[in-house]
Amino acid sequence: MGASLDTASSGRSRRKWGPKAEINVTPFVDVMLVLLIVFMVTAPLLSVGVEVDLPDTEAQAMTTSEEPLTLTIQADGKIYLQETEIVFDELVPRLRAIAGTGSEARIYIRADDGAEYGDVMRVMARVSSAGYGNLGLVTDPIRN
Q1: Is the Cβ–Cβ distance between 48 and 56 less than 8 Å?
Q2: Residue in 119, 124, 123 with CA at minimum distance from that of residue 134
Q3: Exposure winner among 37, 90, 98, 99, fewest CB in 10 A?
Q4: Residue 10 falls within a domain, yes or no?
Q5: What is the distance of C-alpha 126 from the center of its chain?
Q6: Inter-helix orientation angle 117-129/91-99, to 10°
Q7: Does some domain include residue 112?
Q8: Predicted confidence (pLDDT) per residue in 88-109, tens digit
Q9: For residue 58, what are the CA distances in angstroms to 73, 111, 115, 135?
Q10: What is the count of structural domains for the chain?
Q11: CATH code for the domain in which residue 81 is found
């Protein structure tokens, strides 16, 4: 006897097509793959941070495993702690709030090539008075 989908008591074979309780996930998978590709392409194009034109030097790039604390000084004198703009007078209280009475952590100072030398020195003096003695100046390597 042959296999059939549904056998009636009379011996006749007939099919019953009813609604299925399944979700067709194929369109969802297609949309997710397209979104994945879009995010993979656009993620490297998003630059987070403060735009600054660093001076060029012959120093080699440093490697570090932790997120560094950075101060950015732009050519117009604006100061940023990480990506947040702060006023010069708020610099010491913010740094003390981060580390308490002092810290052995290194602070990287990114100064625009067109920034005033005096502005950079004043910021470095404020950072030192906040208890941070380990300062690093960030530059771009010279491109040949």
Answers
A1: no
A2: 124
A3: 37
A4: no
A5: 27
A6: 40
A7: yes
A8: 888 888 888 877 655 677 788 8
A9: 21, 17, 20, 19
A10: 1
A11: 3.30.420.270
Q: What tens digit of pLDDT does each residue of 15-25 get? A: 677 777 788 88
Is residue 4 in a domain?
no
Q: How far apart are CA 55 and CA 141, in angstroms?
A: 8
Q: Is residue 115 part of a domain?
A: yes
Report in angstroms the alpha-carbon separations of 115 from 52, 74, 88, 121, 122. 10, 6, 15, 11, 12
Domain that holds residue 109: 56-141
Q: 135 forms bridges with which residues in the sheet?
A: 107
- In degrees rounded to 5, what are phi and psi of residue 57? -140, 175
Q: What is the CA radius of gyration of the chain?
A: 31
